[in-house]
Amino acid sequence: MAITVLDTSVGMEAVLAAPIDDRVDVLRDMLAPVEGMFRYFPGDVDLAAMHAMSFGFPLGRCVDEVPGALKKLRDADVWARISNAMTRAIDVQCAAAPRINVPDIVVLLVLGDPEDEYFMGPLRGFSGNGSATGYVSLTLWPTEENLARVESAAVHELNHNLRYAPGGIIWDPASVVVGEQVVSEGLADAFARQLYGDAGYTPIGQPHLADDAVLAKVISGLRIQGMQNFTAWVHGDDSARRFGCEPVGLPTGAGYAVGNRLVDLYLSSTGRTAADALHVPSQDIIDVALTTIS
Q1: How many CA atoms lie within 13 A of 82 on its CB side?
Q2: What is the reported pLDDT for 188?
Q3: From the first residue on, what is the mean pLDDT of each consecutive set of 10 residues in the chain (294 residues)?
Q4: pLDDT of amino acid 17
Q5: Is the Cβ–Cβ distance between 15 and 117 less than 8 Å?
Q6: Is 130 helix (H, G, I), strand (E, B) or coil?
Q7: Disulfide-capable partner of 200 in 193, 223, 263, 267 (CB 3.0 to 4.6 Å)?
C-alpha cells in the first residue's frame, strides 16, 4: 500500500507559467497520473475537459487570483498535511479492521475556479471525490474554512475509497439506492470527526443537522434506486439545477446532514466507532437509526 500525493504545487505552477496556447497540454500532463479515476467513463476521456467540468482553475482567466491562491496553498503546507492525514487515517482504520483491503492511492489537489458562482457559493469553494478506488481528488479555493479542514476533507474521501475497495461494499450504479450514498457521506464525516472533531463535518451539511423537515424528506427517498438520482437527494436543489436534474425540494448538503444523523444514531446505539462501521451495510445502519428515531 502506498499513498502518493501528487506534487501539483509544481504542476500548477508549470501550467500557469506556460504560454496560454500550451496550457491545456501542460495541464493534461499534470493530470495524467489520475487518468484511471475515469476508467468507468464511456469512451476516451479528455482530462482537461474533466478539469473544467470539475470546477478546476481557469487557464486564461483570474491571472492574479490563481497564482495568489497557489501561494496560499504552499504557505499552508497542504500537500504535507494531506499526506500525514492519509497515513494517520489508514493506521486508525487498519487498527479497527486489520483485514481490509487498502489499495495504493493517488491524491490529486487542484485549485478551483473562483469565478464559478455555484462552486464558490453553494459548494463553499470545495469539491471532493473518493469514489474511484485508488484515487482521491480535492478541488478547492483556499478560503480560511477550506485551509483549516484540509485533513478532514482528505480523510472523508479516503473513507469512501476504503468502503468501496474490493472486498468491501459493492457499488452498482444501476441498483444502488439513495440510502447508500446518504449513509456513506455520514460514515465519511463520522470517520473524519473521529480523527479531527467537529472539523470533520462537511460544511455544506452543517446548517441542516437539526432540521427535522430535511431529515423526513431525505428519509422518504432512501429507497430510490439509481445513482442518477443522487445529485438531487444528496446534494440538493442547487446541484440538481447545475447538472440538469429535477430538484426535489432540498437544500444544499441535505444528504450529508441526514447521513450524519443516521450514522450517529447507529454508532451511539451500537457503541461502535466510524472505523468499526466501515463495511456495515447501509440498510443495517438505517434500520437501527430509524428504530431509534421512532
Answers
A1: 30
A2: 98
A3: 92 96 96 88 83 94 94 98 97 94 94 97 96 93 98 98 92 90 98 97 97 97 91 95 94 98 98 97 97 84
A4: 95
A5: no
A6: coil
A7: 193
- Which amino acid would we find at residue 225? Q
Provide the strand spans (E) within the chain. 3-5, 105-111, 126-129, 135-140
Are 198 and 274 in contact by the 8 Å Cβ rule? The answer is no
Number of H helices and E strands in the chain, helices first, is 14, 4
Q: For residue 283, which amino acid is it?
A: Q
State the SS3 of 237-281.
Answer: HHHHHHCCCCCCCCCCCHHHHHHHHHHHHHHHHHCCCCCCCCCCC
Cβ(183)–Cβ(230) below 8 Å: no
Cβ–Cβ < 8 Å for 255, 221 = no
